[in-house]
User: Which sequence fits this backbone?
């Protein structure tokens, strides 16, 4: 009789034979790969989808998919599986599926493919695994499965809301249908996400004959006003400086988009690199939300203050290595100095502006930046030829180019929009 109480520590499938270690590890290896590809897929559209709220959502979801991949990679390594097996694709057909998915055009077709095909297929594979493995023997996997399924169900709910917010044209609806049909066939050719379904006919590459390239350039909707750059008021002009600080936080969407470029356009790095950049990307998008939340609380309208563009223009023009070196060493690294730096920003919000929400947000922004500097130093030490000892002139040259971009247009004094309270 199957357990229905707390015997067997509450694990229900304790006496079913379940999966062997080899079979379980192979499925989990596929899960790790799929989550890793979903991370990249979602990150790739942070730059090109114009809708701010969707950009923000994709930044969160790509990081959570990266965490899922990390969790499965760790579990596979516990199952008598050499870590080298995690380096490549577990199935060429699965690789082609995601290579093709990277070429889905536009906002609506892309979200439809992710929301209505790829994510549901992954959830179905997760549920099938949970129904087949022995809960007692494979407890670490079962525990992870419960946690990741909760995340994936939340992803599905949020993506569905985002998809419903878009009013697609007839052409976009047709594109979505065509891509879902085509990618369904590629998925079948791989035997499904977990490889257990009967395989369909092999599918040669179509769109992915050429690798996908991120389109460069700022893409913005009309939800927020924009300027090129800000004039920085002195601390003593407290209301003006607070507006400036909130607008700076809002503008960190530029940094998040730049990190999405770094993540997607830097090939052949260790997995730890992509996990770190994925985290950093979401952190910077969170910081943009810090500004949005503070502006909305202060003025009752998230569009009361503008965001600035020049940082995004620089991120689109610079190489991934240059912009990451400038960000990690020249920008965030300099913010560790006091004064001014992140500590002064927090003290200003607490002691001069006396803004409780910004005080909390700046406190956590400061903690995040300390982490980012440590991550950047670690990653750049192995990425840059010669390591940190040789990178100084390179990063300073990148900062000079960033300054050249900044000086293309005059800065603007931050002013609340008319009608903002």
Assistant:
């Amino acid at each position: 009789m199957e357990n229905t109480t707390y015997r067997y520590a509450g694990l229900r499938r304790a006496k079913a034979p379940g999966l062997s270690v080899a079979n379980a590890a192979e499925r989990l290896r596929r899960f790790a790969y799929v989550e890793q590809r979903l991370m990249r897929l979602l990150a790739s559209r942070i730059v090109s989808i114009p809708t701010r709220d969707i950009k923000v959502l994709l930044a969160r979801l790509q990081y959570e998919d990266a965490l899922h991949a990390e969790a499965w990679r760790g579990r596979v390594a516990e199952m008598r599986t050499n870590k080298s097996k995690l380096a490549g694709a577990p199935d060429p057909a699965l690789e082609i599926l995601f290579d093709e998915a990277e070429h889905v055009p536009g906002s609506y077709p892309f979200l439809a493919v992710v929301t209505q095909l790829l994510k549901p297929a992954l959830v179905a594979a997760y549920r099938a695994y949970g129904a087949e493995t022995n809960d007692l023997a494979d407890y670490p996997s079962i525990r992870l499965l419960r946690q990741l399924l909760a995340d994936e169900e939340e992803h599905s709910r949020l993506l569905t809301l985002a998809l419903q917010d878009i009013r697609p044209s007839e052409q976009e609806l047709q594109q979505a249908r065509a891509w879902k049909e085509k990618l369904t066939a590629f998925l079948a050719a791989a035997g499904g996400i977990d490889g257990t379904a009967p395989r369909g006919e092999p599918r040669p590459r179509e769109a992915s004959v050429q690798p996908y390239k991120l389109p460069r350039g700022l893409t913005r909707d009309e939800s927020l006003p924009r300027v090129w750059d800000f004039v920085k008021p002195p601390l003593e002009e407290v209301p003006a400086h607070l507006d400036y600080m909130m607008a700076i936080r809002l503008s960190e969407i530029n940094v998040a988009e730049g990190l999405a470029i770094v993540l997607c356009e830097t090939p052949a790095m260790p997995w730890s690199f992509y996990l770190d950049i994925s985290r950093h990307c979401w952190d910077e998008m969170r910081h943009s939300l810090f500004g949005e939340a503070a502006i909305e609380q202060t003025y009752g309208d998230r569009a009361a203050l503008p965001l600035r563009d020049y940082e995004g223009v620089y991120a689109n023009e610079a190489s991934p290595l240059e912009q990451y070196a400038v960000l990690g060493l020249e920008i965030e690294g300099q913010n560790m100095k006091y004064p001014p730096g992140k500590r002064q920003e927090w003290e200003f919000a607490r002691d001069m502006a006396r803004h409780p929400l910004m005080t909390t947000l700046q406190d956590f922004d400061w903690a995040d930046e300390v982490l980012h500097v440590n991550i950047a130093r670690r990653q750049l030490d192995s990425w840059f030829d010669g390591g940190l000892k040789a990178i100084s002139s390179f990063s300073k040259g990148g900062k000079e180019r960033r300054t050249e971009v900044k000086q293309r247009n005059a800065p603007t004094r931050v002013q609340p929009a008319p009608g903002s309270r």
Summary: The chain has a mean pLDDT of 96. The chain has two domains: 7-209, 226-413.
